[in-house]
From TrEMBL:
Domain of life: Bacteria
Gene3D superfamilies cross-referenced by the UniProt entry: HUPs (3.40.50.620)
Ranges that cross the membrane: none
UniProt name for this protein: Universal stress protein
Alphabetical list of Pfam families matching this protein: Usp
UspA domain mapped to chain residues: 21-167
Originating organism: Demequina capsici
InterPro entries (UniProt xref): Rossmann-like_a/b/a_fold (IPR014729), UspA (IPR006016)
Length: 179
C-alpha cells in the first residue's frame, strides 16, 4: 500500500530557501520574467535558476532523473538542427539579460507538454517553486485559455510546488477599457 501523503500536504511542501527555481521561458524570453525570477532567487537564496523552454515541435523520447530529456522532432521530415539553434539563441538572450547575475543559471531545453515537462524538471532538481509569465493574448487565445486553462493553472493543479505567475502585460484599471 502506498504511504505517500496526498497532494497538497504540509509534509510534501518543498524547502523554500537554498533550493533551485524552475522558470518557464519562451524563445523571446521576457526581461520582466527573467529579472523577476532573478530577484526571487536572490531573496530565497536559491542555489540556481533552471530556465526551461518546452519546445512544442519536439516529443520526449526519454526523461532522465536529472531533469534532462532526450527528444526528437515531431515532424520526421523537419530539419533536426533547428532545435539546437533555438536553444543557442535562447541561451544567448538569457546571457544578455543576465550578464552579471549573482545567481548561477542554466538552460534546459525540454519537449512535450509544458506543464508536464516543467513539473518533471522541478521534481528532478528539487525546486522550491515554478515561475512562469502571463502573456498578452488576442481574443482567440483568451477563448482557448478559458476552455483549456492556462499553463499556471495546469501546473498548480498537477504538482505540489507553488507556482508564481509574473504579469507580463497588465490592464491599467485607472484607464477605461477600450473595445
Amino acid at each position: 500500500m502506498d504511504r505517500t501523503p496526498p497532494q497538497p500536504s504540509v509534509s510534501r511542501l518543498p524547502a523554500f530557501r537554498e533550493q533551485p527555481l524552475v522558470v518557464g521561458v519562451l524563445p523571446d524570453a521576457s526581461p520582466v520574467l527573467v529579472h523577476a525570477a532573478e530577484g526571487l532567487a536572490l531573496a530565497l537564496g536559491a542555489t540556481r535558476i533552471c530556465f526551461a523552454y518546452v519546445d512544442p515541435t519536439r516529443v520526449i523520447v526519454e526523461e532522465r532523473p536529472d531533469g534532462r530529456v532526450v527528444h526528437a522532432a515531431l515532424d520526421t521530415d523537419a530539419d533536426d538542427a533547428e532545435w539546437s539553434e533555438r536553444r543557442d539563441a535562447l541561451a544567448t538572450r538569457l546571457d544578455t539579460l543576465l550578464p552579471h547575475s549573482r545567481v548561477p543559471w542554466e538552460l534546459h531545453y525540454l519537449a512535450g507538454r509544458p506543464d508536464r515537462a516543467l513539473t518533471h524538471l522541478a521534481r528532478a532538481v528539487d525546486a522550491s517553486m515554478i515561475v512562469v509569465g502571463t502573456y498578452a493574448d488576442g481574443w482567440v487565445d483568451q477563448v482557448r485559455h478559458t476552455l483549456e486553462g492556462t499553463l499556471s493553472t495546469h501546473l498548480s493543479q498537477h504538482q505540489h510546488r507553488p507556482v508564481v505567475t509574473v504579469p507580463l502585460s497588465v490592464v491599467d484599471w485607472k484607464d477605461p477599457v477600450v473595445r
